[in-house]
Amino acid sequence: METDTGRPDYQAMLDVALEEARQGLDEGGIPIGAALFRRDGTLLGRGHNRRVQEDDPSIHGETDAFRKAGRQRSYKDTVMVTTLAPCWYCSGLVKQFGIPMVVIGESETFQGGIEWLRENGVEVVDMASRECIDMLNGFIAAHSEVWNEDIGEE
Fold first, then answer.
1. For the chain: N or C, fewer Cβ within 10 A?
2. Does domain 10-120+130-147 have CATH number 3.40.140.10?
3. Which neighbouring-strand residues pair with 126?
4. Which position among 19, 27, 54, 62 bears the catalytic label?
5. Active site residue 27
6. pLDDT tens per residue, range 36-68
């Protein structure tokens, strides 16, 4: 998944995470998807927020993709792609395993830990995707109580 310039095709990577977000929404869950790639575009794992579906508060999109990628000897050449700025929990995962780059679909709806990630040397690319913004805002409007639970608000 590279562009003609040899750089990673972030939009193609985000499209994988968007597919996952749509699947989560179709399952009745929170529409946040993620994927873990090598910098050369090789897909390692993909997943989506399944907190509602699995009744497990730890299954965020990023953690699902991370788990499905399986053990890696190193994460120094990986990119975490997610439809929404990662929360503190998922930001900690990125930092803990040394994932050097996070591509996010949007941070308008939720900022999470992106400034903390940047301060700690993680490259953050915000795609400002209208599709990501609209999908999550539609969900929040219809299910604010589930969203507030997901981000730890009462």
1. C
2. yes
3. 104
4. 62
5. no
6. 999 999 999 999 999 999 999 999 999 999 999
